[in-house]
Amino acid sequence: MSLVILACPSCDFVVASFTEEQLETDSRKRKRLEYLKSKDTLCPNCMTKTRNLVESRGAEAEAAIARAPVVKAPPAAAKVEAPAQPEAGGHEGALPLCEALEEGPWPSHVTELKKSRYHLQMYEEGLRLRQTQWGFGGYISLPGVAAGILVRASARPDIAGGANFVRVLPPSGGWYSTETLRALCEVADEHAYGILHLHSSGGDVEILGITTEGLGSAVEALNASGLDVGSTSDAFRNTVECLGATRCDA
Q: For 182-227, how does the pLDDT look when each residue is reduced to its tens digit (9 = 90+)?
């Protein structure tokens, strides 16, 4: 059975493989092949980002598989303590529009964002232009996370680079224990901006701002806490179960 593979041009790692029969009979496989050839892909072995995956067929594909390296474990990220003050660069520059949102008697989300590592200058530019400065940047392949990791691209790399974020499937019924909430917060503080999206439009928890090098450690920490990560692209999102008597008695 003749094979068709796509490999990393830097380390020869096989990113995807198909059979000729699959490509002839399965339109989804054909679309997947063309999609991978046209998008930026992060090799899970050498962590090189490329849009030029090498396509091989038949005997060439078999030879490429024979010389392909075994995937390495994601590099462990050094532990980063959440700073008492925001990191330099995140909040530099004038923020007149953001600061206007701190006025008045009500609690301000801007005040809370200043305690995190979120790039408030991006928010300021979005308010000024009335258009977000973030955009969809594709997916990252990570061993052990079949559904992938999302990338939020930056329209202003002079202010902030793109940011990875993971979607975490919530516990059954959306019922969070204090231990689960603490685990989510610790991952966000250690590996990301220190903020959570509760919840996304799909009902998931999103942890934003994780570095590529820290993705493996962040996912391991979440899995160790009993939480599953994924739900991007054509994948299972979330199931909201009935809370039973807890809700009926409310």
A: 999 999 999 999 999 887 777 788 898 988 888 889 989 998 988 8
Q: What pLDDT, in 10s, does the model give residues 3-53? A: 888 888 888 888 888 888 888 888 888 888 888 888 777 776 776 777 788
For the CA atoms of 58, 63, 67, 70, the dihedral, rounded to the nearest 10 degrees, stands at: 30
Task: Specify whether 60 is located in the same domain as 86.
Answer: no
Among 19, 35, 67, residue at a domain's last position: 67
Domain span including residue 95: 73-250
Do residues 98 and 187 both lie within one domain? Answer: yes
Inter-axis angle of helices 215-224 and 178-191, to 10 degrees?
Answer: 170
108, 24: one domain:
no
CA 213/CA 144 separation, integer angstroms: 15
Residue 18 dihedral angles phi and psi, to the nearest 5°: -140, 165
Looking at the fold, whether 111 and 133 belong to one and the same domain comes out as yes
- pTM of this structure: 0.56
